[in-house]
Design a protein that fits this description.
- By secondary structure, the chain is an alpha+beta fold.
- It has one domain.
- It contains three helices and seven strands.
- A seven-stranded antiparallel sheet has the order 1-6-5-4-3-7-2.
- The longest helix has 9 residues.
- It is globular and about 40 Å long.
Length: 143
């Protein structure tokens, strides 16, 4: 996987706003990665194939995703701006449905896992488009 490969799916990605940081692995996905989990694939599927916090409804809704991250002490906030005492998560939605999540790094950039593919470091808006939609909801927890 290269940046040029990513550009096919995410037209705004380029060498200055995105870097690949790990090889592909199916062990975890973006939702888990945003919460620092790299041993489980998180998704609220009704078939129970994937992990989902037990107390949270298995629904592809913002409320369910916010509740899932609340089990890891994240709370809603109104800003994606870097704050040195807060770690943030961005939830990307397409037509109101959660599709992706990214975690803000201490340098202000974001880290994402692309499905079962690679991890990347990127600018928040670089992944916006027809696959993930837009970063619409933000959560934080104190470092």
């Amino acid at each position: 996987m290269t940046i040029n490969d990513l550009k096919k799916a995410f037209p705004d990605v380029n060498n200055s706003n995105c870097a690949i940081t790990s090889p592909a692995t199916p062990k975890y996905n973006c939702i888990a990665w945003a919460a620092h989990k790299d041993n489980l694939f998180w998704w609220p599927d009704a078939s129970f194939i994937y992990y989902w916090p037990p107390s949270v409804p298995r629904k592809e809704t913002i409320d369910a995703f916010v509740a899932a991250y609340a089990t890891e002490n994240y709370k809603p906030c109104n800003s994606q701006n870097l704050q040195k005492d807060r770690e943030k998560i961005a939830i990307y939605t397409l037509n109101g449905i959660p599709k992706h999540a990214a975690r803000q790094l201490k340098n202000g950039r974001w880290t994402s896992k692309l499905g079962s593919n690679v991890d990347i470091e990127h600018e928040l808006r670089a992944l916006e488009g027809s696959i993930y939609g837009k970063a619409t909801h933000f959560l934080f927890r104190k470092y």
